[in-house]
Amino acid sequence: MxxxxxxxxxxxxxxxxxxxxxxxxxxxxxxxxxxRGCSKGECGTCLILLDDLLVxxxxxxxxTALGKRVTTSTGLNxxxxxxxxxxxxxxxxxVQCGFCTPGMVMATHSLLRESPDPTEEEIxxxxxxxxxxxxxxxxxxxxxxxxxxxxxxxx
Length: 155
Hints:
Layout: E1 2-7, E2 10-15, H1 22-28, E3 47-50, E4 53-56, E5 69-71, H2 84-91, H3 101-114, H4 120-126, H5 138-154
Parallel strand pairs: 1-5
Antiparallel strand pairs: 1-2, 3-4, 3-5
Helix pairs in contact: 2-5
């Protein structure tokens, strides 16, 4: 099969097998910031936005994305600079091995679009489905709070 998807604002022509997931296609086309974790939709490492909907790319057939917009963690960058969420994760020390970070960033982005000033309970709910084996989540929650504060202050 073949078709076109728009990834991070750039139209991309793709060739793929009917059984390929969006995760397969993204990684096979250089978007390695989308991580392969469990391949069951349970860990959150492969989270992306598909037409602004947060999805586990391992659970979406590539054919479903044809003609749609895909945004990865890298696609959140602002004028070549890291997004405020990326900076907040680094500044709060929420990045250790970094494997879960792109998915956490995407979940945070989705959460803050819906709730710009979330409570800690809302943050925890917004990160459900994202597994981290390194941090214990405390610094991740701190990073979401920091990103929220900075985004509200700077638009």
